[in-house]
Amino acid sequence: MIDKHKEIIGIPETSDLVSKGSTWKQKHGWDTDTYVYEERDKAGALLAKYEVDDATHMYPPFENEVTFRKFTN
Questions:
Q1: Rounded to an integer, what distance in angstroms lies between the CA atom of residue 35 and that of residue 18?
Q2: Second label for 5, Cα 20 to 30 Å away, from 12, 15, 32, 59?
């Protein structure tokens, strides 16, 4: 999953995406997983934080939406 999110966010090869946790909720027919990541350079310095929402509709046709928010220092 982290590779998919790294591609969607556009993290360069010079940075790492580090998982810091996730949550799950159901609301209005959507099953949403929220992932929290930190982008760090190869030296380990924090560059940015991200929240990625991966939502799937619980009923046919089972649509899927992935969005993210970036938080900078």
A1: 10
A2: 59
Distance separating alpha carbons of residues 50 and 18, to the nearest angstrom: 10
pLDDT tens, residue by residue, 14-73: 999 999 999 999 999 999 999 999 999 999 999 999 999 999 999 999 999 999 999 986
Query: Measured between alpha carbons, how far is 43 from 66 in angstroms, rounded to an integer?
Result: 29
Report which residue type is found at 6: K
**Using an 8 Å Cβ cutoff, are 50 and 41 in contact?**
no
Please give the Cα distance from 46 to 64 (Å, whole number).
30
Return d(Cα 34, Cα 27) in angstroms, integer: 13
**pTM (2 d.p.):** 0.90
Report the alpha-carbon distance of residue 15 to residue 54 in Å, rounded. 22
